[in-house]
Amino acid sequence: MTKITDWLSQGIRTLKTAGIESARLDCLILLEDALDQTRIKVLSNLDYEIPNITLTHLDKMLERRKSREPLAYIRSSVEFYGRDFFVNPSVLIPRPESESIIEIAKTLPFISGATIVDVGTGSGALAVTISLEIPDSTVIAYDIDSAALEVARKNNVRFNSGVEFIQDDLLHESASTFDCIIANLPYVSRSHPVSIETIFEPSLSLFADDDGLALIKQLIGQI
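Structure (tokenized):
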């Protein structure tokens, strides 16, 4: 049997060798998930012997992280605006910086029943959060990718947020008018260097032509 302290030490060495600076934090997060325990519980029971079936699961997750796969995909979960959203490799992992879009939206003087549109919704994190944080609004989310919309719908069900989802190329087929349009579209130039972790994310959600501006210009033209 392997104790938590032994697995943690070995795991940290493994990830550090792979060039991962957050090695200790990553290993602790994997332990929390696998053991279904808080970090305090994990660290206060370092002599606990990990069951073999759990150890096998842990080792598999460690190998995935060693290959630089993002923790969010390994865990199928990421925190955004205080909520845990389901994610998989079909969608871009929501970034903490995108929470500023929610903060800005919450300052706007919406009337009751205002219609807010999220273009290129991906995981649905923005749309679902807007719906929950501005509860009197009607939120509609668009995405061109059916696999991404499947993830977004799962998050919609998870939080019972009542978002409507539409598959479309930005707002190409829409003839409606809206009170607010939010969009966190791909803006990275295809020639821009990216981190190793980024190669696991869908290129459709990251890169755009015209030095990263193509989809933004297209959406502005549609609006």
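The CA atoms of residues 12 and 61 lie 13 Å apart. The first strand starts at residue 2 and ends at 3.
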